[in-house]
Amino acid sequence: MKTIFLIGYMGCGKSTLGKALARRCELDFIDLDDYIEARAGKKIREIFAEEGEEAFRDMERRMLREVSADGKRDVVVACGGGTPCFAGNMELMQSRGLTVLLAASEERLFERLKRGRHKRPLIAALSDSELEHFVRKQLAARMPFYSRAAEIFDSTCLEDEDQIEEKCRAFISRFGLRLKENGSQD
Question: Cα(13)–Cα(31) distance, rounded to whole angstroms?
Fold first, then answer.
């Protein structure tokens, strides 16, 4: 099996679905943002503030190469929302595995981000109307990159354990993944 890269806008469910898939199929799971923070020893917002976006994007590309190195298999990588949009990252991911765009409606993204905005410095201070405009504008700018994914998978319904389980089963079936040997779904 090749690396599976989950891409899409923030709030589309990359980490939620990625962790669930990895657990059910005995795959490694890497959240690229968490990986970058661990390697850098600081939060992404600190990297942006101290070193700038260009330095962050360079680090992101190097870490993307690292997590998808030729010997690394059976891994699900949840990419940052901007990862596919910079430095030829989409081409890199496509050469090293399967790119899957997790697509949720703008309304669903807005609702998820509104609930969890305090965890995301980029949107924490935005009003609801500013957030809605921000999401719409960024989605439009990123869609040309996202649309180059090899596959699209609907991630609209990931709001509770039952929906996550249902989406996992659908993903596993669609992409031919294997469940744990004992069939456990823990």
Answer: 12
For 102-118, write each residue's pLDDT tens digit.
999 999 999 999 998 87
Is pTM, for the whole model, over 0.85? yes
Pair 5, 79: CB distance under 8 Å: yes
29: alpha, beta or left, given left = phi > 0 and alpha = psi -120 to 50?
beta
Structure tokens at 17: 């679905």
Are the C-beta atoms of 116 and 11 separated by less than 8 Å? yes
DSSP per-residue string spanning 123-140: TTT--HHHHHHHHHHHHH
